[in-house]
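anyone seen this seq b4? input:
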Amino acid sequence: MKRFKVRTIALLTTAMAVVLSGCGSKEGSAVETKVNQPSPVTLRVASQAVGTLLDEEFQQVVGERLKAKYPHITLEYVPDAKGTTLNELMASGSTPDLIVTFTGALASYRDLELVIDMEPLFKARNMSLNRFDANYITDVRNASDKNELYGLPINVNYHALYYNKDIFDKAGAPYPTDGMYWDDVLKLANKVTRTDGGVQIRGLDPGYTIIWMSQPLGVAAIDANNQVVINNDKWKRVFELGKAIFSIPGNELLAESPKDQFMKSKKLGMLLDLNILNQLVAAEKDGLSWDVAQYPSYPEKPNTYGNASVYTVIATKTTKHLQDAVSVIETMSSDEVQLELSKRGRLSPLASDAIKQALGSSNPGLKDKHLPSIFKSKPVPYPVASQYRSQGESIAINKFKEYLQGTIDVNQALSQAEEAIKLKLAEIKGAK
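predicted toks r here
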C-alpha cells in the first residue's frame, strides 16, 4: 500500500511538473514574441529628379512586399514639389530617412553629409551585389572618393527612339529600324518633316537638347577635377549634329516640350527619350500610334547610348531608423519587386535575364511593341562627374541655342561656354 501511494505521488508530481513546464513555456513564448516584435515605424521617402518613378504603381508594388516581410514599416512618400523639395526639407530640419535620386546627384550628397557607406550593412544582411549588372553598382561607387556604396540602384532609365507610326505612314517613309547611325536618323527626319493639313510636323527631337547626344562620346563640360573641358572637337561635333537636326526646315526647336509634341499634339515623328513606356501606353488610348527602335549610335560607338540615369535609393546619415531603412532598400531591390515592376514596363538594374525578358509582359498596352530593341544598346559607364555638372551643362545648352540662332559660330560658342563655366565655378567657390 505504501509503495502504491509513493508511486501515485511521484506520478502526480511529474504530471504537475509537465503542466507547469508547459504553462511556463507558453508564457515565455508570449513574452519573447512580444519582446521581439518590432515597434511600428513610419519612414519618410523623399526624391530628387526621378520623374514619375515613385508613382502609385511603384508604391503599391513596394508596399505589398513590405507588408508581407516587414509589416511594422510604413512608408510616407514626400513629393518632389514646391515646399517639399529635398533642399527645403533639409533647411526645415526635416531630412527624410530615405532618398531616391539619379546616380549623378550622389556626389553632391556627399558634400551635404547626407550619405554613409552602406556596404557593411548590406553584407550583414547577405544582400548580394552580384545580383546587379556590375556597371550599375560601379556607377553608384563612382559617387564616392573612397569606393564606398551609398545605396542600391532600383531602376534604370534607358535611352530609346520612339516614333509615331501614323506620321511615317502619311509621309510614305519607312519606320526607324535598329542599328541606325545619326546620319540615318537625320535622313528619316528630313523625309517626315512636312506640313499636313496646315499642321507643321517635326521629324525629330533629340530630347534633352544636346546633352544626351554628347554622353555616348564620353564628354563632359566639367570633369571630375572641376576642370572645364568643353572647348574641343568632340563637343564641336555634338553642337554641329544638334544644329543639323534643328536646322531642317520645319524642324526648329519649339517652346512646347518634345514629350508633349509627341504624345499630346502628335506632331513629332521621332522622339529620343528615356523610359516613358507607361506614359506612351496612356497616350495610345488617346490616339497615339507608336513603337520603339534602338537608340541611334555614332559609328565609332556602335550600340551605345548615354548615361543610364540609374535611380538609386539611399538611407540618410541622419535617420534614426537605419536598420528599418536597410529593410526598405532590401525590399525595393528584391527579385520579387523588380520582377513585378519589370512586368509593368520598368527596366530593372538586376542582371537576371528572366527579369529583363519580363519587361512589359503584364501590360496589355505594350503587347506587340518592339521592346527587345531597347536591349540592343548599352549605356556608357556613368562618368565620375563634377558636383557642378548641372551648372556646366546649363551653360552649354544656352550657348548651343545662341549658335543655333546664328548669332555666333560653333567655335565662338564653345570658347564662350568655356569662359562662362570658368566664371561660374569661380563664383560658386567664392560664395563658399
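The two ends are 99 Å apart (CA to CA). The first strand starts at residue 41 and ends at 48. kinda curious what u guys think
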